[in-house]
Amino acid sequence: MAPGERMGLLRWWLIFLLLLLPLGVLLEGLLTNELGADPAKYIVKELGFWAICWLWLTLAVTPARKFLGWRWLTRYRRMFGLYTFFYAVLHLLAFATFLVGWRWDILLTELTKRPYIVVGSLALLLLLPLALTSTQGMQRRLGKRWKKLHTLIYPVSLLVLLHFVWQIRSDFLQQLIFAFLLAILLGYRLYLKRCS
Fold first, then answer.
1. Which of 35, 83, 132, 137 is 20 to 30 A from 43 (CA-CA)?
2. What are the C-alpha distances in Å from 134 to residues 80, 138, 162?
3. pLDDT for the residue 57
4. From the CB of residue 15, how many other CB atoms can be counted at a distance below 10 Å?
5. Domain boundaries defined on the chain
6. Is the pTM of this model over 0.90?
7. CA-CA-CA-CA torsion for 132, 137, 138, 139, nearest 10 degrees?
8. What sequence ranges are listed for the domain Ferric oxidoreductase (predicted)?
């Protein structure tokens, strides 16, 4: 293996493990009983938080490539997207297991009382086809339709932000930061589209 290939492989594994790190920290906190007074709520919240982080990171690839010249980052966009889906699924599973207990009557009540759950579920449903068609084989098979399908990431990001904002109880700083970052990420794309 050439030194360049070795470096590329090492970087791939490093990024792969870094994206997995929050889950490892969460599991370690669970095993050592350090997740606070309400561990179930904390797990659901943390998994959702990291799903948003990785989604924003996925959206940041194009601006980072075009504005900063970080072409190497494009190789990891698929990984970022799949990790987004992975954490979002874990977020939903944690919610269904720890907060609802897989009881459909409670889930239906939650859906009617808390519209942010509907919005979050819709975002996850829209992420599903993106995850399923993320392979190079699917990209070749779908051709131009692949790119069009993957523009779903934009409405997904808006739904995710809405899901996040609707949960504000008192402190809205975190949501404000995420909204500001998304405005930059989507605004930059609009700017590029207008200039092309």
1. 132
2. 11, 7, 25
3. 96
4. 16
5. 39-195
6. yes
7. 120
8. 47-160
pLDDT of residue 82: 96
**Cβ distance 134 to 78 under 8 Å?**
yes
Angle 47-183-49 from CA coordinates, rounded to 5° = 5
Looking up tokens 């998304």, which residue turns up? Answer: 182
Q: Within the chain, which residues score under 50 in pLDDT?
A: none
Alpha carbon of residue 123 to chain centroid: 10
Distance, in Å, from the CA atom of 20 to the CA atom of 11, rounded to the nearest integer, reads 14
DSSP 128-153: HHHHHT-SHHHHHHHTHHHHHHGGGH
SS3 32: coil
Q: Which residues contact 19 (CB under 8 A, 6 or more apart)?
A: 54, 79, 80, 83
Which two tokens mark 156?
């997904």
pLDDT for 196 equals: 66
Amino acid, res. 186: L
